[in-house]
Each structure stands twice: as structure tokens, then as C-alpha cells.
Amino acid sequence: MKSDRSVTMTERVFDLGAKLIAVLVAIFLVTPILVIFPLSFTSDSLMIFPLPGVSMRWYVDFFTNPVWLTALRNSLMLAVVTMVVATVLGTLAALGLVRLSRGWRSVVSTLLLSPLIVPVIIIGVGTFFYFARLGLAGSFFGLVLAHTVLALPLVVIAVTATLEGFDPNLVRAAYASGASPFPAFWHVTRPLIMPGIATGATFAFITSFDEIVCVIFLGGPEFRTLPRQIWSGAKETVTPTIAVAAVLLVVASVVMTLVVEALRKRAQRLSKGAAT
């Protein structure tokens, strides 16, 4: 009995210690991000603590400044186009991947997921020299292709995870009923894997919206996204407007993360319902 009690006490202490470490790490990672929120409401032209006063002047400056609004519009446009392209290609790749044999699946999945392993700076330099020969450097289409390379593995992972619990007999039943491949996919497969598709699309949007390295290499001097404008502002004139832009990036990422979590829970409910 004493031995069992000592083991239980040890497990409780270990569990409490692990939770404490997790909380401390979370505080360490989140605190620098949270600092920008009060700084965006400062009434001074300098980002200092304690705040001399509270004001919305820098939010007004952001939403009335054509430079920042253009950067926000470019970021949204680039992220939406990248999301659409990466989601379509990633979904098709995942559908083909699950049909391969185990050996070929390992090879192909390694190639598809390699952008997650290669540093972004290497991808930026490589795409710049390659796209320069094709005349795509400095073009919007070149940026879409580069961001699609970064976002595609996330879509493949999300859709493949959903397909792992998919019952292929449902598609066979659709074929037996006379459905051709595309209607069978659209009316049978697509609704069941939609949570994975939506999750991959959300990750693709976040990846493009927050990316800066490829934008610096391929965007050209005139094309500025929100992260690039923040980078330029931090080098040239540091004002609390930069904090406002950073707040918008953080809020957008948090909202998208919450959407992904909601989709994940919905996918779990659907898989449980299909199992029963």
C-alpha cells in the first residue's frame, strides 16, 4: 500500500511540475506578444512604458494612411489567392497520396512535406534565382507560387489526416449507383473531408498572411505586404502605428487558430458519428 501511495504521490508531483513548466513557457512566449496591445493605444509618439496616456490616434493613423492600407490590401489579396491555389492542389495531392502503396507514399509525402524542413530563407533565395530566369521575380504570380510552396504541405497534412478515417466503401457505393468520379467526389467525399479541407485552407491563409522572407526576395520594391511594411517601418521610423499593424496580425492569427480548433472538433464529432 505504501508503495502504491508513493507512486501516486510521485505521479501527482510530476504532473504538477509539468503543468507549471508548461504555464511558465507559455507566459515566456506570450508576454512579448501581449506587450504590443497596450503600446498600440499609447498617446505618445514613442513606444514606452508606462503609457503617458491612452488614445486611439494610431488606429486612426493606420486606417487613414494609404501606405498601411495598401499593405493590408496586398496581404489579404495574396493570402486569399494563395489559400485557394494551395487548397485545391493540396487536396488533390492528398487524394492521390492515400491511394499510393506504402513505399511510394513515403517517397511522395517526403517530397511534398520538404518545404516544412527546408529553412524559409533557402526557399526564398532559391525561388528568387529560379523565378528570375523565368521572369517571375517581382510579380504577384511569382509570390503566389512561392507562398503556395510554403502552404501546400499544411493542406496535405490536414486533408490526409481526414482521409485516414474516411470509408472508401462510400465512394464504391456511389460508383455502383452509377455516379462518375467527379460527382462521387463532390457529393460523397467532399462533404466528409470538408473539415480537413477548411483546416488546410486556414493554415494556408495564415502562412501567406504572416510571411515576409519570400516577399522581400520576390515582391519587388513597390509591392509591400503588412509584415514587410512593419519590417520597413521598424528600420526607418518606429511609431506606434507599427504596434497597431502587429496587433492586427496577431488578432488575425488567433482568430484563424480558433477556427482551426473549431473545425478539428467538428471533424472529431463527424468521425464519431460515422463510426457509430
UniProtKB/TrEMBL annotation:
Native source organism of the sequence: Aminobacter carboxidus
InterPro entries named in the record: MetI-like, MetI-like_sf
Subcellular location: Cell inner membrane; Cell membrane
A Pfam family this chain is assigned to: BPD_transp_1
UniProt keyword terms in alphabetical order: Cell inner membrane, Cell membrane, Membrane, Transmembrane, Transmembrane helix, Transport
Domain (ABC transmembrane type-1): residue spans on this chain: 72-260
Transmembrane keyword on record: yes
UniProt record similarity statement: Belongs to the binding-protein-dependent transport system permease family.
Protein's name in the database: ABC transporter permease
Membrane topology field: Multi-pass membrane protein
PANTHER family the UniProt entry points to: INNER MEMBRANE ABC TRANSPORTER PERMEASE PROTEIN YDCV
CDD domains: TM_PBP2
Membrane-crossing residue ranges in chain numbering: 20-41, 76-98, 110-132, 138-163, 192-218, 238-263
